[in-house]
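User: Second chain of the day. Same drill as before.
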Amino acid sequence: MALMLYTESEILPELGHRLREYRLRRNMLQAELSARSGVSASALKKLESKGQGTLENFIKVVFALRLENEVKSLFLPQPVTIAQIEALKAPIRQRARRTSRPLSKPAGG
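Assistant: Same format as last time:
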């Protein structure tokens, strides 16, 4: 299922679940994946069961499972429309705009 259908809090456990599925498809024990990835067994268990862990550990496991191309494809530019190309030509903002403060009333009035 596409990740865009998940909320932010659902994505991490889903990614952990997917890592577990790939590990099992490769008939690999957690201990074996732990050794291959350099991630401790307890960290791997947390990553697979709850989606909790560091980005570094996630990437180590991804590479150990040979899923790096799938991760790389997450940020590939998508085909664009002419309207999107025109929007890209607009100047890129360098700073956020300040929010305007409400005008204070003059004293004594």
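The mean pLDDT is 84.

User: Great, on to the next one.
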